[in-house]
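Fig. S4 source data, part A: sequence.
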Amino acid sequence: MGEFRRDALTGNWVVVGMKKVKAQETGVCPFCPGNEYMTPPSIREIRDGHGAWLLRAFPAANPVFQIEAKEDKRAEGFYDKMGTLGAHEIIVEDRAHSKTFAAFQPVEVLRVIDMYSERILDLKRDKRFKYVHIYKNHGEKTGSYIVHPHSHVLATPIVPHQLFMELENSRNHYLQKERCLLCDVVSQELRQDRRVVIASSHFLVLCPFGSRMAFEVWIMPRQHNPAFESWQDDDLRREFADVYLDAMRRIEKVRDSYSVVVHTSPNTDPGRFGDRGPQVDDYFHWHMEILPRTYSQYKREDEFYTVPITPEEAAEILKSETT
């Protein structure tokens, strides 16, 4: 079992000493129907009218974080470390083995959205977890060795460094202007219309101004909303499913590998980011990031990303792709 260690220079937490157990290469997919015995028992399943599962969520067989671990915050000299308390789950998104997301139907995307939301809400009930992180890797360049469509759910006792920076920048913007940062992004992108890929009634898909990767896109609600999991309107869910599906079909025409990451509000007291002033729900705006990959590893954080085309050019190419 590994442990969390805090990088004293950047403040980032990393997991060290985690020994990966390589899955046996049997040629049998553990996520396919009939092979459920190869995975831990399901936490949650969505089934059809005949009782067959359509989606299932279960604990990861080789988890990075463990619910049974203790937080055990401690010091080693002036360094900080703690146990790998948390949760690591897998969501198998469909019964079909090699189905890509672009081939999903809207109702199938809705089931995935519902499972994402349900797992976030369930794990947020455990107040030991400060953040619930959902991501999906597709294609060899992401390091994903199982083709079957699936996502990871991580619940951690710390807010990840990237999300923490987003929270800090969003909070500082709100303190200066009393406006949400991403609400301002939405307003400017719609006004300029140079990086917009899709604009529906309630959602915006754009290539971000400072794209880290070619054809990187973000999906976000046009109206302020801090939490991805807070769906209260079926029409909004259906509209998001349509927009997400449209975006994925465009992405899969230009890249065969990509990562999808959901950025939702943290599961922590807003006072953690300032005893006075705005609350997290005032200044944080959920969004989904789709990161197409052309190389097998992300660059280190201390390196600059080098992208061969501008986000404006990428937006035009994606906009021209018919779905």
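Fig. S4 source data, part B ends here. The CA atoms of residues 90 and 152 lie 5 Å apart.
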